[in-house]
Amino acid sequence: MNALMISLIITWTDAFEGIGRFFQWTFKGMRALGQMPNVLISIFVIGMLVYWTFRLMKYKKIAQRNSTIE
Any alpha helices (H) in 9-35, and if so which ranges? Predict the structure, then answer.
């Protein structure tokens, strides 16, 4: 094998070390953000629950108006 082929070979160790370095970098950024990702995700989930509740109320009114199964 020539030097170029040897340098192109990626082992499982290289792949997992690369993944590990990526996650370490990602979690350093998350640490800097503090609780902001938790707050944003919580606001999103609560907003979607409120939206879905209003949609269900709308469908219930339509079902009562049409005398269909609720």
Answer: 12-33
